[in-house]
Amino acid sequence: MKSYVIFLRAVNVSGKHILPMALLKNELSHLGFDAVRTYIQSGNILLKSKLDKQDLKYAIEDLIHKKFSFTVEAFVLNEEELIRAINNNPFDSSLPGNRVFYTFISQPPSEENLVKSKLIPIGSEEFYLIDHVVYFYLPEGMARSVLNNAFFEKKWNTVATGRNLNTILKMKELIQINN
Question: Which CATH fold would you assign to the domain 2-82+169-178?
Fold first, then answer.
């Protein structure tokens, strides 16, 4: 069995797509996944599975659709992919973890859309695209930022989910304990 981290897109946000993590954990265990854990209420899951990444993604999305009656996108990473994403972070490690964000995208933008998005004024905010992860830094925090998941989804015609660095590092810690 292989350990995976799953990031669900837009659950338990602003009263939409309410998904009780304890109930989801039980449903995943009943489906036969092992060592199922969730972290906070924003759709962070750790588990062990015999399924490959794509089949696991579909199994989780199908379960949520059938049991909770809404559609959600699941981003599935194995331990190596999570560590690679952490190691690829272009920002200085001394920056506050609640100001550095990782956004996982379903598909990379076209070169044209990437260039166009870099022309948009974003003040002191910064972003980099490495593989299927957008790294961005918000020196003033998320509340009034230009950059967010919706920005990248709209400008790049993709599906995205994001977490701050603190959550990413916690998931790394948990997946290593899970092994």
Answer: Alpha-Beta Plaits (3.30.70)
